Amino acid sequence: MKPWAREALALVLERVAxxxxxxxxxxxxxxxxxTGRWTTTSRGSWTGGFWAGLRWLRALxxxxxxxxxxxxxxxxxxxxxxxxxxxxxGLIFWYGTALGAGSGGDSASVSLRVRAAGAxxxxxxxxxxxxxxxxxAFGGPRLVARVDGVPGMVPLLATAGGxxxxxxARSHLDRHLALCLGEGPLRPAWEWTATGRWAAxxxxxxxxxxxxxxxxxxLADAALCLDDGTYVERARxxxxxxxxxxxxxxxxxPAEVTAPQGLVDTSAAAxxxxxxLKLAAAATAPEAQxxxxxxxxxxxxxxxxxxxxxxPGRPSGMLLNGCYDLxxxxxxxxxxxxxxxxxxxxxxxxxxLVTAHDV
Length: 359
Prior knowledge:
This is Sugar ABC transporter permease. InterPro entries: 6-hairpin_glycosidase_sf, 6hp_glycosidase-like_sf. The chain has a single domain (3-351), classed as Glycosyltransferase. The longest helix is centred in the N-terminal third of the chain and has 21 residues, at 3-23. It has helices spanning 3-23, 48-62, 65-76, 89-101, 107-124, 153-158, 163-180, 209-225, 230-239, 266-282, 287-306, 337-351; strands at residues 27-31, 38-41, 144-146, 189-192, 198-200, 335-336. It has twelve helices and six strands.
């Protein structure tokens, strides 16, 4: 195993301990790139599951009972989102519980995931639309299909209600794929209008950094949880050429296609790396090797270029240059909690700390 990946994982997970000491009983959201100081939320918003997931990764890495207890406590705090009207319950509950329920062997995580899956199927899934709508929890119209409401939701639904849950999971993904990957550039969001038609939303706009990454992750989720290789085939269309990847092929997406030159989104690259590693677990050789190699190059680039190292000034282990919301000018060059999570998860998958079937 490449030593850089193990060393980088240790550095990023040490940052988790530093963050935990700073934020106390609040959830971290994004950190200033110069000082490392976090902006926090009381309930976690749509990113709360990533903080719980990071705590589980640290617990699995250290084997320390105190880390395990902390991870279980933060996972339990996600329960307040069980009845929330939002498709981001997929992100909150799948990535917040999967590591505890899998490698962690935590019965409370298993129970919370089961409850969340049932809630998303019973009160979330809208059969007439074929999706769990984006919802009204964060304001705006609720009958919206958005790419960031797909990853996590697919495996969560697939674990609920046997065949009914699997049908809902497949419908949720397929409808989003049909909308977002129709003619023209990828459109991340669509609204069901009063005229009974889907209409493209202005935001997030085509060219949004995380649009492609979230869809790749959703396809990887589906390939594994539904045991369906056709979703690996669908992912090929988003990945481009099948040739062996080289360092020159590594691209961190721009924050948006209209972003000022140099403004990128490392969180999107970290999400894509995890998607590639999960797709590799569902693919057959030699494609699996190519996907894994491409992910390794992307992770190494992030670690080498965008992660802070020990030294004076700002803290080490920060994945910088994540872009939260360019449209509103929020945290456009920052450390983002989901960027940290997917970087750490990618490194954990690469080093064998966890497997693609754990999360």
